[in-house]
Amino acid sequence: MTNTESAPSAAKKASARKPAAKKDAPTVIEVRNPGTGQIVGTVPAQSADEVAATVRELRLYQPEWEAIGPDGRKEWLLKLQDWLIDNTEHLADVLQSETSKPRADALIDPSFGADLIGYYARRAAKFLADDHPSPHSPLARVKKLTTAYRPYPVVGVITPWNFPLAMPVMDVIPALAAGAAVVLKPSEVTPLSALELARGWREIGAPPVFEVVTGASETGAAVVGNADYIQFTGSTATGRKIAAACVERMIPYSLELGGKDPAIVLADADIDRAAHGIAFGGMFNAGQVCISVERVYVEAPVYDEFVAKLTANVKALRQGIDGRELKHDVGALANENQVDIVQRHVEEAVAAGAKVLTGGKRTGQGTFFEPTVLVDVDHSMSCVAEETFGPTLPVMKVADEAEAIRLANDSVYGLSASVWTGDKDRGERIARQLNAGAVNINDVFANLFSYALPMGGWGLSGVGARWGGANGVRKYCRQQAITKPIVPTLQKELFWYPYQNAKLLTALGAMRAAGARGLRRIDIPALLKLKGDNK
Ligand code: ADP
C-alpha cells in the first residue's frame, strides 16, 4: 500500500461507528491503483441494514444542525476548509493511490473543495434568508408573507469515481450548508478519498451529521431507500434507476449524468488557443470528466491548421505514473471497463474508415490509454454518438456555423459545450442556439469553477442542477409558506361559515375588483341579484 496508511483505518473507524456493523459481517471491497494494479486499501460493502442505521442516527442530530443556523454551520464548514488546506498533500496522496492521476490533477480536488466551501459557508446565510414577497393583491396586504427554507432532514449523495474528493465536496457541502444531514456513498472504485473527508469532519470535532457508507450498487440503492433527497452523479443508466426508485418513494432528486460535449471552432477563432484549450478539455483526467470535450466541429477554412496544431499538442502530452513530483499530464483510466469502452470506440471508428492521427491504443501498462486524435469520423460512429469518457478527440470538418450548430445539437446529451471564435458576441449568439446546460466561449470547464452558475445537464445529461448561487442550497430545502396577520383580526372572516349572500358578494367582489380589468371588476348581475334577495 502506498501513501494511504490511514485510509483503511479510517474505513474501519467509519464502520465501527455504525451499530449494525457488528451484526452483519460485511464483505470487503478491494481498492486498486489502476495504474499499477496494486491493492491500496479495503472497505466494507455495507448492507442495507447498516445504511438504514446510519441514516437513523443522522436523523437524530439533524434538528440541532438546522437549529444552529447558517452562521453556526459556517464555523464548522470553514474548519473543514482549513483541514482540507492543511492536509492537501496527504489527500492528494490518497487520491493518487486510488486513481493513478498525475500529481497536478490530484492536487486540484482539495483546492477546489476549499474554494467551494468558502463560497457556500460564507453565503449560506444570505441564500437561506426568509423571503418576504410582496402580496399579489391589495387584499393580501393584511398578512405578512414569508417563504422559509427548511432543509430535507437527510440528503443522500451518490458519487462516481472520476473526482473521488471533489465530487463528494461539490454536493455534500451545499447540503450541509443548507442544514441537512448527509449520507455519502462514494464509488466503490474510489472510496478512500471520501473516507478521508469523513475523517476530516470527525477530526475537527463537527457534529455527527455527515457519514460515509461504502459499497457498490446495493449500498447505493439503500441510500436511495432511506434518505429524503438524492443527489446523484454517474451514468445515465444508473441515474434512470435512481429516478425510478425516488419516484416510488416520492422523494425529490437531482441527477448529473453523461455527456458528449461538442466544441465548435469557427474560422475567426484564435486557432492556437482553441488547439490548446481543446487538447486540455479533451484529455484532462484522461478524458474522464463529465464535461470533457468529446467531439469537435471545425469550419473548413481552418480545419487543416487546427487539426495539425491539436495533434501536435496531444502528441506532446506526457503520460505515466507520478509520485509527488509533477512529471506527467495524463494518467490512467479508472478501470478495465473504461479501457474496453475507449478501445471499442477507436476500433469501430477505424473499421468504418476513420484515421488515427496520434494515440489509438493502450500503452501496455496498467489501464493507460494513449491520448488519441481521430479524423474522418461521423455521427454514425460510436466515438461520436456515444459517451466515451476517455482520452479521445474525434474531429469533424463543417461547412459553416449552421452545420456546426446542427451537428452539435444532434445528441441525446446536453451537458456543456464550447464555442471558439474571435467574435465573442457571435459566440454568445451561438451559445443560445445550443442544447446544453452550459456553454463556455473560448474556454473549457469555466462554468465548473463558477458556483454562482447552475451546473446541470439537458436531455439525457440530467435532471435539475447543482449550485447556481442560492439555488445550490435552496434545492436541499423544502419551501415553507407562512402567513402572519398584521392587522387586527375579525371574529370571523367574510368567507367563513355560514355562507351569506352579502358577505360572499363582498369577499368575491373584492377579489374581482382587485384582479380583473375594466368593467369586469364589478359583478353587476350579482349586485342586482343581491338587491332582489334583500327585498
Ligand atoms: P460509473 O461510476 O461507473 O459511471 P454508475 O453510474 O453506475 O457507474 O455509478 C455511480 C455511482 O452510483 C457509484 O457510486 C455506484 O456505486 C452507484 N450506483 C450504482 N448502481 C446504483 C443503484 N442501483 N442505486 C444507487 N446507486 C448506484
From TrEMBL:
Compositional bias per record (Low complexity), positions renumbered to this chain: 1-13
Keyword Ribosomal protein: no
Highest taxon listed in the record's lineage: Bacteria
UniProt keyword annotation of Secreted present: no
Entry annotation: catalytic residues: E256, C290
Pfam family, one: Aldedh
GO biological process, one term: aldehyde metabolic process
One annotated GO molecular function: oxidoreductase activity, acting on the aldehyde or oxo group of donors, NAD or NADP as acceptor
Region (Disordered): 1-28
Keyword vocabulary terms for this entry: Oxidoreductase
Stretches assigned to coiled coil: none
InterPro entries documented for this protein: Ald_DH/histidinol_DH, Ald_DH_C, Ald_DH_CS_GLU, Ald_DH_N, Aldehyde_DH_dom, Aldehyde_DH_NAD(P)
Boundaries of every Aldehyde dehydrogenase domain copy: 25-481
PANTHER family associated with the record: ALDEHYDE DEHYDROGENASE-RELATED
Family from the record: Belongs to the aldehyde dehydrogenase family.
Protein's name according to its UniProt entry: Aldehyde dehydrogenase
Organism: Nocardia bhagyanarayanae
